[in-house]
Amino acid sequence: MTTTESTSTELLASSVWTSLFGVPFAQRYYDAAGVRTRVLEAGTPGNPVLVFLHGVNGHAEAYVRNLEAHAQDFHVFSIDMIGHGLTDRPVDVVYETDTYVEHLAAFLDAVGAESAHLSGESLGGWVSAKFALKYPHRVRRLVLNTPGGMQADPAVMAKLRELTLDAVTSPTREKVRARINWLFHRASDVPDDLVETRFRIYSQPGYREVTERTLCLQDMEVRLRNLLTEAELQQIAVPTLLVFTAHDPMQGVEVGERCARLIPNSQLVVLEDSAHWPQFEEPELFNDVHLAFLRGR
Predict the structure, then answer these.
(1) Do residues 215 and 161 make contact, with C-beta atoms less than 8 angstroms apart?
(2) CATH of the domain at 262
(3) How far apart are CA 264 and CA 153, in angstroms?
(4) How far is it, in rounded angstroms, from Cα 175 to Cα 181?
(5) For the residues of 6-25, what is the DSSP string, one character each?
(6) In CA terms, which of 191, 212, 220, 242 is 20 to 30 Å from 266?
(7) What does the DSSP 8-state code read for residue 217?
């Protein structure tokens, strides 16, 4: 296990979009088996594909502070998963992990990627691990960043459900900020325009209706049948980086230590100055650790 600490907070005080000043990137939509899927895309086509996946009721902007660094070596896609962000939000599907796995498979097909590096945060990590189990030939390297699906803590599940439903019910910026603040080590580091972005997303017609469905993984019975079991973790066959933090409100570092013991070819890194969004809270350090792993160093 490697423990690292960041001392710079300059990026944390900046806007969401200052991280993309001068960076060639695009917002695009792809047809993933009939699901109109929104992405933030950067890098050169033909380079290895890297897909970033956000957490529950999140969106692609979770990775704006990582696109530039990774676009130098990879064709990068930060996607809105099905039911989230500006991607299609069908209400006639069951939002358990296999729905997200199949959406990811269809997205890779849509961009012509036989395989990709996957880096998922929270729900995105859960989905990435399930994808690696179902389609191991399509995953090069796997990053599980404060991943979900490792445990079922009733108090955490209830808090996540409460804050999320409150934020999407007659949304206000104050309620959305409370939802985001819970993810951060320091609430003062949440940029106003991140709140505004999520407020606009949550204010879309029908967003609360689909959120009631995407929160199904916070129901104990549903969660238990989707959890990553010890046997499944032992079957992950690709090189895996586990990114955990010292201040995650959802789980402790001991969960990462357990995963590192179970996943055969894995390494654990603990970031000391972030909570549930280390890729955003400690971007420079996260990018360094992440790139070193993806490059095989």
Answers:
(1) yes
(2) 3.40.50.1820
(3) 25
(4) 10
(5) ----TGGGS-SGGGGTT--E
(6) 220
(7) G
Report the phi/psi class of residue 94: left, alpha or beta, with left for phi > 0 and alpha for psi in -120 to 50. Answer: beta
d(CA 284, CA 276): 16
What DSSP string runs through 28-82? EEEEETTEEEEEEEES-BTBPEEEEE--TT--GGGGTTTHHHHHTTSEEEEEPPT
CA distance 244 to 35: 32
Residue range(s) defining the domain that contains residue 15: 2-294
The pLDDT assigned to 15 comes to 77
The DSSP H or E segment spanning 142 is strand 139-145
- Token pair, residue 238, equals 């690709």
Residue 50 near residue 265 (C-beta atoms within 8 A): no
Taking only the tens place, the pLDDT of each residue in 212-261 is 999 999 999 999 999 999 999 999 999 999 999 999 999 999 999 999 99
Which runs of consecutive H residues, i.e. helices, occur in the chain? 67-71, 97-110, 123-134, 154-168, 173-181, 192-202, 207-214, 220-226, 230-235, 253-262, 278-281, 283-294
Provide the number of structural domains found in the chain.
Answer: 1
Write down the residue that tokens 């070819």 correspond to.
265
